[in-house]
Amino acid sequence: MRIALIVLIPFIGAVIPPLAIRAGRNVCTAATAAVTGLALLLLLTDVPAVFSGRVPGLRVDWLPQAGLSFSFFIDGLGLFFAGLILVIGLLIIIYARFYLGRTDSMGRFFCYLLLFQGSMVGIVLSDNILLLVVFWELTSLSSFLLIGYWHHLPASRAGARMALIVTGAGGLALLGGMLLLGHIAGTFELSELLTRGEVVKSSPLYLPTLILILLGAFTKSAQFPFHVWLPHAMAAPTPVSAYLHSATMVKAGVFLLARLWPVLSGTPEWFLIVSATGLVTMVVAAWIALFKDDLKALLAFSTVSHLGLMTMLLGFGTPFGVIAAVFHVLNHATFKAALFMSAGIVDHEAGTRDIRRLGGLRRLMPVTSSLAIVTAASMAGVPLFNGFLSKEMMLEEAAHTVYAGQAWLFPIFATAGALLSAAYSARLVWCVFLGPKRQDYPRHPHDPPLGMWLPVAVLASAVVVIGLMPAIVAGALVERTASAAVGGALPQFHLAIWHGLTPALFMSGFALTGGLALLWAYSSLERLRLALPRPDGMTLFQGSVAGLVRSSRFVLGSLADGGLPRDLAVIVLTTAGLALAGYVQAGPGPLAGTRAALPATIPAVTGWLVLLLACGLIVRHHYDRLAALIIISVIGLVVSLAFLQFSAPDLALTQISVEIVTTILLLLALNLLPRTTPDESSTAGKLGAGALATTVGVGVAALAYAVMTRGTETISDYHIEQSKPAGGGTNVVNVILVDFRGFDTFGEIIVLSIAALTIFALLDSALHGAARRRIRTLRFLPRAGDPHPLLLTVVTRVLLPLSLVVGIYVLLRGHNMPGGGFIAGLIVAIALLMQYMASGYVWAHRRARMDAHAMIGGGVMLAGAAGLASLAFGRPFLTSTFGYFHVPLFGEIELASAMAFDIGVFFTVVGTCILSLATLSRVEERAEQASKQTQVKTGTGAP
Amino acid sequence: MSNPWLIMPLVVPALTAALLVLALRRSPSRQRVLSGASVLVQMMLAVGFCLAAADGEPRTYLLGNWPAPFGIVLVLDRLAAIMLLLTGVLAVCALLAALETWDRRGRHFHALFQFLLLGLNGAFLTGDLFNLFVFFEVLLIASYGLMLHGGGARRLKSGFMYVAVNLIGSTVFLFAVGLIYASTGTLNMADLAVKVPQVAASDQALLAAGALLLFTVFAIKSAMVPLHWWLPPAYGAAAPPVAALFAIMTKVGAYSIIRVYTLVFGADAGPLAGIAVPWILPAGILTLVLGTIGVLASRALLDLVCYALISSMGTLLIAVGLTSADGLAAALYYALQSTLVSAGLFLLAGMIGEGDERQDRGAGVRNGAGLLAGFYFVLAIAAVGMPPLAGFIGKILILEAGRAASLASAVWPAILVTSLLMIIGFARTGIRIFWNVPVGEALAVPHPVAMLPTLVVGGLIVLLVALAIFAGTVMDGLAATAEQVLKPRHYIGAVLRDQRAGPAGGE
Predict the structure, then answer these.
(1) Which residues contact B385 (CB under 8 A, 6 or more apart)?
(2) To probe the interface with B, which of A743, A853, A880 has the most B CB atoms within 10 Å?
(3) In a domain, B226, yes or no
(4) CA separation for the pair B7, A728 (Å, rounded)
């Protein structure tokens, strides 16, 4: 559990700084430092165990199905990196206290910093490789937040985005690689996986796995050509650059290579890819660094170069390479973090970090200058400082390396890298600290407060101490770390300043003197550089992101803005295509079934011809809305006749009453619309639509034909058989509707209710705001002189009670004869609609006692309650019961509980129609009043 | 095994809505209380159902006490229980976010909300194909009403498209049901599972056409490319709490695909076994790619959220298309997480104000920027599938399940590359909205951030975290669910063997 705490403490502690900042900046810093200190303390308690060869660990299952577990272990490598992260973290926190300005939100900064710290410790202590990926991505995210900390600056935003995208891409590749690796090895736990190197290397999936993992490592550790993000990450506050982008996060890739070294290294692929990438990165970045005028940019490219050095060492695949790499990680972390912090101090105190505007700071800032010169010397590889030692080891390894048969390649380029490194270090020292004092610094430079230089001093003293006594100070640590990385015993090695007259010594000496010589020839070198092509990573990157966005906009724009007709065409075509594919794929059987066709009678043929004629007419007259509506109602009528022809009186009745109600409501709606629709489509569009409609129509007709000529045994046989004995009704259609499938009906009346409520809500909002103003401008066409003809009024009023009686009759007889709640509801609704039409909305509305909303709500309630009643008798919802009762005068009558349900249906239907009508009429009433008022005002119309 | 409680998730919202319309339509405060209580009850029922379904025994409910397959039957298995729970949780969130704000901007919000829940619960519970159609109708019309809620030309315009597309879907659904009924003579899904393998050879082509017509209906619902065009305008125009609830509507389509093409046209369907399978995976990849292109192309936050939803449907459909138990379990996990994420993003877009009439494109957020930016950061992480949230876990589950697939060479690159493009899209939009603000302005807070939506988004994030932390436990349940779904013999047996409660009909 203690191990998990080392990782979790920074995460949990991340909530503290935003709270602690209320108590002041010192408290906030102290709290943050305490969090890191606590984690470090816990880590240190494991040191004895690790050095005695044990590997403390913890495993808690997280997602065993995917191989993801919450497991950690501390071996030498993990301990080394975790220690580095926490120690340098502590120094950075102290430094940041003095670095951050008054307007910078310190709570937020430390919060992000701790999140990063936790993620980073998580990477190096994870036992599970998927958990490692989790922390890996978390470092990308926290680094994004830290780079974008000053998000009001465009450079910060661009740098943060670029870092996130490049390292995020690497993270995804890494995820893929780790999933493959775990699959090959059969385990996701490093502690087991590290012993299965042979299995992995012999797998056919080895190469894709390797490439994916290397992509992850190279993007994170800024290897060429993925190094582009790192210099732009320098837009972050300097403590972030020092911590994330030199000492720790960018080393995650190197850590990963070291971690997986026993599993992945030792193959030709590994050697060829990794060492070459490292070498190219080292030389190219050092070359660029030499010409950078921005202190932080110089240091950033130097970091890239040194990361290349470490990568190259690991790529050699030799244990000595690993030892040198590990040692250089330590050395680089000390001198580079110190240099970054020094650069921050210079920037802070002198007001600029442009080398061309600095110089002579040695006298103005003696402490800072001494520390910076010591650490820069280490970077240059000057003897007696720690950088010299690991560089020497690197050169020694490179001297023995034969790449693709070429023995000269690595020694020469490695020396070139070292030489360039010495050159830019010398340039930094010379141009910033030495040289003549200037008069035009933006600010008057002086040494910073103790808190700011103390962390640098700590690191600088480490540089010197390690440099002088490497074996005593770092020997055991490097040995323990490297042996953990190699996963076995190390060959004999000795960290020392003097190894005798080795090739490396000559290379090193040549590099140092050559570096100084380069500085002397700097101006001619710069001309050379200007003559060379210098692709700018940021421009390229932003260009490709912008291009990506542009092309996706193009793709989407050309696809998405097709308008409704195009979208519907796509949907219809896809649907038809799939259905056809299914039909053909299943071995197209005969379309026609076995059932004999009915004789074509004259009425049937007539009906069919009318239908065709109506369809033709609608194509011709669709733009005239009123005509279209009338023709559509003709189609409806023919359909209801067809139902009658096929002995379905219930359906015919329903169809015809629905037809009437919808026609009336649509007529009312048409009143508010222009008489004709605009002609929107081109001739080609019309032809295309026509072809599509014909094709789909023929297809549907074929399917209908296929269905109608078949007679499969269906569940309705049961319904017909059981209608009377079990359902208590002879009208099987009604028994199906209210009983066998009453639940469907319940759903459908709810659909109706929702439709009415929607119309109401929609038009209610139309009575307000912009829509209302538009309604006011509507002009009604001159109409018949008398809107409410006397004859119509009288007839409808006389018919009303009759219709109501008919409705009730149809409702009650429904269970046994054609009829039922739905049809009855429609009949009554028609009768009421007629009142509104004949006598006017105001007249009818004043006399309507029933509230339409209540009818709808009540109807659904009643139907639901009728269904629930059976629950009281221990039967499921909607279980019906019926009985025969003797009533005097009437004789024997049958009452079924389903009737109560049917009455609910009845009320819902009536309520729906009335509410729709009332809502539409209300809008029209408003419009009419408005138009009358305007007419009165302008004096054009009769009052 | 019969269970009398199964009807409750349908009766409760239906009667709540009826009561709201009948008696409470003039009292907004009492409407809120009733609607809220009803939603809570539904969520509790769903929790209870999840616990009950955990024993692996499907529960049935014979409506009207008619024996299957002659009447309508409700079935609760693990899958239905999970979907009900997701609906319940989402409903609570959406309703809370709408209280006192959006529910006042139009009529009948609560009634329509309850009716929509009825449609959702019904679609997940029903064991009958035609009844599924009825609930699709309820869903469609209620969602249309809710989509228009608040009024305005933009809503009307995209609402028209929404309703037009979905009416085509309904029509095709009817065709499909007609064809299936004509060749099998039954509508009960368990009964269909028995009858489909026995269909005469001469009728198989007809049945196959019906099966794939049905598939297109579900594909439209799940916004499968190229049938997805209706989604961005419709969801983008809807009020944020409504859009948040709509996040589950696409999952109704995915659910129906899972249900019908494992139960009715699954492995045991004889000559028609797996008839839709060859289409799901390629369509899923296409959906993922196009959704991601949409994310990259988006200029406003709402567009981004809509296309992210489409892209997540692509990922989900890929997992469904793997047709393995692992794939299905991963799909369900991904469905849970992507629904919560989408809901959160819609609510957040509403809080930022981009979803409102006062469109504020590119100018940055001023009110409560820090909190909203934090929400966006976390939800974006979940949406693009970065660790440590549930999106990442869903993604590794799908990648692992997809390793063995025949199309693996397409699945892995598709998922990994689109993830990167999603990161780019979300990063661009987030930076534009939250970071591209002058220093002084970012701190000004003219309007306080609305309280309830803030709590709801926070709650959704807590759920996402919990889903990630307890992924192992959740996946145990989902693996069992996938197992149950892919071996439907139990389901079929439970439906067709179920005994009625006493003799039916009159005494």
Answers:
(1) B391, B392, B394, B395, B419, B422
(2) A743
(3) no
(4) 24
Reduced to 3 states, what is the DSSP secondary structure of residue A128? strand
Check the CA dihedral B64-B68-B70-B74 and report its sign: positive
pLDDT at residue number A735? 86
**Residues near A102 by beta carbon (within 8 Å), at least 6 away in sequence:** none
> Which residues are registered as beta bridge partners of A886?
A892
Q: Which residues contact A536 (CB under 8 A, 6 or more apart)?
A: none
Cα B107 to Cα B97: distance, rounded to the nearest angstrom? 17
B21, A856 Cβ separation under 8 angstroms: yes
Q: Is residue B310 part of a domain?
A: yes
Provide the β-strand partners of residue A61: A69
B-facing residues of A in 66-95 (CB < 8 A) are 66-68
Does any domain span residue B446? yes
Q: Quick check: B360 pLDDT over 60?
A: no
Nearest C-alpha neighbor of B405 from the set B330, B459, B500, B346: B330
CB contact under 8 A, A583 and B209: yes
The predicted pLDDT at position B447 comes to 54
The owner of tokens 């609906």 is B87
Report the distance separating Cα A588 and Cα A601, nearest Å: 32
> Running DSSP on this structure, what letter comes out for residue A492?
P
- CB neighbour class for A942 (10 Å; exposed up to 12, middle 13-18, buried from 19): exposed
Strand stretches in A566-667, DSSP E: none
Whether residues A65 and B472 touch (CB distance < 8 A) is answered with yes
What is the token pair recorded at B79?
Answer: 């899958």
Q: Does position B408 have pLDDT exceeding 80, yes or no?
A: no
| Main-chain dihedrals φ then ψ at residue A73, nearest 5 degrees | -150, 150
Secondary structure letter of residue B500 according to DSSP: P
What CA dihedral angle connects A395, A399, A403 and A405, to 10 degrees?
170
CA–CA separation, B204 and B192 (whole Å): 13
Nearest-angstrom CA–CA distance, A350 and A348: 6
In a domain, B447, yes or no: yes
Distance of CA B313 to the CA centre of its chain: 10
Residues of A in contact with B208 (CB under 8 A): 582-583, 585-586
Report yes or no: A902 and A825 within 8 Å, Cβ to Cβ: no
In angstroms, what CA-CA distances link A731 with A236, A445, A847, B93? Answer: 81, 102, 36, 46
ipTM: 0.92
**Contact present, B75 and B125 (Cβ < 8 Å):** yes
Euclidean distance between CA atoms A626 and A616, whole angstroms: 16
Structure tokens, B489: 């013999």
Selection from A75, A133, A896, A558 nearest residue B400 by Cα: A133
CB burial of residue B429 (10 Å; 0-12, 13-18, 19+): buried
Q: What is the pLDDT of residues A425-480, one digit of tens each?
A: 999 998 888 888 888 888 888 888 888 899 999 999 999 999 999 888 888 889 99
Closest Cα in chain B, distance from residue A273 (Å): 22
Q: Say what the pTM is.
A: 0.93
Q: A343-367 pLDDT, tens per residue?
A: 999 988 888 888 888 888 888 888 9
CA distance A115 to A120: 9
Q: Which residues constitute the domain of residue B414?
A: 289-469
- In DSSP notation, B331-388 reads HHHHHHHHHHHHHHHHHHHHHHTTTSSS---SS---TTHHHHHHHHHHHHHHHHT-TT
Total tally of structural domains belonging to chain B: 1
Contact map slice: A 147-166 vs B, CB within 8 A: 148, 151-152, 157, 160-161, 164-165
Q: Which amino acid is at A612?
A: L
Backbone φ and ψ for B221, nearest 5 degrees, come out as -60, -35
CA distance A705 to A695: 15
Please state the rounded mean pLDDT for residues A711-715.
82
User: A737: nearest CA in chain B?
Assistant: B71
